[in-house]
Amino acid sequence: EAGVTQFPSHSVIEKGQTVTLRCDPISGHDNLYWYRRVMGKEIKFLLHFVKESKQDESGMPNNRFLAERTGGTYSTLKVQPAELEDSGVYFCASSLGQGRHTQYFGPGTRLTVL
Amino acid sequence: GDSVTQMEGPVTLSEEAFLTINCTYTATGYPSLFWYVQYPGEGLQLLLKATKADDKGSNKGFEATYRKETTSFHLEKGSVQVSDSAVYFCALSDRTYKYIFGTGTRLKVLA
């Protein structure tokens, strides 16, 4: 069974540009999460999808970030326009259910904004 | 709110040394506790977990016991190897959906 995959693995962009990150969850996992680790700090929750619906986006930093999950399969996280402080590693995770269900993480996308 | 505090790194050990990485938490209710590991160039992998007080999670020679009285979940291994070099994250889940992570502890094991 394939794990959570993320694309790209690395992205280097200029301030003001747009970047779109993609996450493919484990097949059959309705729950999909985005997290971010900035500058060696803790990994912080960004948002949670159940199928195609946003369950909680309280961790999204501001309206430059837009997450979508059309059709309830893969998800995209778009940053537009990117700022220097957006640099970090963006992790995606998926789980079969909520609560006690373990979240399985992808390899992350390292975003560098210059 | 809920939080996780883990010891700062890097932790540098010689091969076969004993490892302890401290983790304490603050939470309302009874969270599940996790240790995740990130090897160089790879993603986060679940190392072990415990879902209730006094549970012991174990995997690959690593162990951690859920201590409610001290709100701790310290990671231990009796004899580390060079291949254990990685960043270790302690995390909790309050049975909803959000995971709350510590800042991570980098472990370097020298041959």
Task: Write out key terms for the chains shown.
heterodimer, A: 114 residues, mainly beta, seven-stranded mixed beta sheet, 49% strand, globular, B: 111 residues, six-stranded mixed beta sheet, four-stranded antiparallel beta sheet, 12 strands
Give structural notes.
The complex is a heterodimer of chains A (114) and B (111). Chain A is mainly β. Chain A has no helices and eleven strands. Chain A has strands at residues 5-7, 10-13, 19-24, 31-37, 43-50, 53-56, 65-68, 75-79, 88-95, 104-105, 109-113. In chain A, strands 2, 4, 5, 6, 9, 10 and 11 form a seven-stranded mixed sheet that branches. Chain A has a four-stranded antiparallel sheet with strand order 1-3-8-7, with no helix packed on it. Chain A is globular and about 40 Å long. The relative contact order of chain A is 0.33. By secondary structure, chain B is mainly β. Chain B has strands at residues 3-6, 11-14, 19-21, 23-26, 32-38, 44-50, 56-59, 62-65, 75-77, 86-93, 99-101, 105-110. The radius of gyration of chain B is 13 Å and the shape is globular. Classes of the chains: A mainly beta (114), B mainly beta (111). Chain A binds chain B through residues 4, 6, 31, 33, 35, 37, 40-45, 48, 55-56, 59, 91, 93, 95, 98-100, 102-108, and chain B through 4, 32, 34, 36, 42-46, 49, 51, 89, 91, 93, 95-104.
